Amino acid sequence: MTRVIKLKKIDQTLNRLTHSERFMKQYENIRKEILSHPKIITFLKANSSSIDEGMIERSLMKLYEFTTQNKDCSHCQSVSLCKNMMQGYVPRLEVQGKSIEIVYERCEQRVKEESRRERERLIQSLYVPRDILSASLSNIDIDTKSKMEAIKAAHGFIEEYMKGEKPKGLYLHGSFGVGKTYLLGAIANNLADKHVSTLLVYVPDFLRESKAAIGDNSLNEKIDFVKKAPILMLDDIGAETMTSWTRDEVLGPILQHRMADQMPTFFSSNFNFNELEHHLTFSQKGEEERMKAARILERIKTLATPYHLDGHNRRT
Ligand code: ADP
Ligand code: MG
Fold first, then answer.
1. Count of CB atoms within 10 A of residue 37's CB?
2. pLDDT averaged over every residue in the chain
3. DSSP state of 283
């Protein structure tokens, strides 16, 4: 009985030995492969003062994981096509105390896609075409002196705003197609780079929608949304068919709120202040009407400094 047991034991031991020998061989091959991976060589060289043999042995599986996850990302088109196990993440080796660890970091493509989404979140727009959102202050075409002045003022605004001040917005006026909306978009983009959120509203559509919302409870919500935007840009004011109702119940309260709280507000218009005042007066109703229009104008003047833009019509 005891002999049988002894024989079995010897058998098992022999078995284990041959197995482990095979295992050792495989291990040695993989080890060689890992340690000859160019990125591993670079890493070990760069950190040679803090890495010893023992650490390499203990962290061999981490290094192995790194070699399997280190794919060539140079032709990547989109995170959704990512070849890595963790989509949009790339491994990086790091010495942590006495061991080597892998940290996964967002890849270049993921960072790019996330910042694009962040920008879309930061620049909200109501009825303003999306292509205007590609405008940029740094490569805007400056074809006239007046545009130069307005761009200078825009930079001044951004600088003051970023210092925590409450600067006045700009009232950009000038004829159709000179680039008023484009400049607003460029300012919004520049602010988005600084993580500041802007709401761009195309006034004619907004007022039309507001009128359609009379009597349903989304009207207050709509007005509130515009009232409370950290930075508001009212695009093309004056191009709408204003009624005394939209003037007094929509535009008036928005401007009043923003003036009281000194909230940055920009405008663009085909009209200068005088022309806009005239546009806002529904003259058939006499003196009271003129007063109401004048009050709106006062609010706009308090909120924004006028800049005239000239130049050719860029739409033709
Ligand atoms: P406005 O609002 O004054 O009527 P837009 O801002 O809509 O004019 O500009 C008219 C067209 O010209 C748009 O297609 C816009 O993208 C383009 N545009 C305007 N300003 C510039 C600029 N500085 N550089 C390049 N394109 C511009
Ligand atoms: Mg415009």
1. 16
2. 88
3. G
Q: Tell me the two tokens of residue 225.
A: 């949304």
Q: Across residues 143-168, what is the average pLDDT?
A: 94
Mutate to test the pocket of ligand 1, among 144, 146, 181, 182 (most ligand atoms within 8 A of CB): 182
pLDDT band at 5 (very low <50, low <70, confident <90, very high): low
**Ligand 2 centroid, distance to 310 Cα (angstroms):** 13
Q: What is the pLDDT of residue 188?
A: 93
pLDDT at 125 over 80: no
Q: What is the pTM of this model?
A: 0.72
Ligand 1 binding site (Cβ under 6 Å of any ligand atom):
140-141, 176-182, 268, 314-315
Mean pLDDT of 12-19: 67
**Per-chain residues with Cβ under 5 A from ion ligand 2:** 181
Tell me, in angstroms, the distance from the centre of ligand 1 to residue 132's CA.
8
User: What's the CA-to-centroid distance between 180 and ligand 1, angstroms?
Assistant: 7
Q: What are 21-68's pLDDT values in tens digits?
A: 777 888 888 889 999 999 999 999 999 999 999 999 899 889 998 998
What tokens were used for 254?
A: 């928005």
Q: Match 């040695």 to its residue by tokens.
A: 28
| Rounded (5°) CA angle 249-255-257 | 95
The ligand 1 atom nearest the CA atom of 184? 6
Distance 171 CA to ligand 1 centre (A): 16
Ligand closest to CA 154: 1
Number of C-alpha atoms within 13 angstroms, CB side, residue 109? Answer: 17
Q: Is 173 helix (H, G, I), strand (E, B) or coil?
A: strand
Q: Which atom of ligand 1 is nearest to the CA of 235?
A: 2
- DSSP bridge pairs for 91: 104
Amino acid at 241: T
- Whether 148 shows a pLDDT value over 80: the answer reads yes
Query: What pLDDT does residue 100 have?
Result: 93
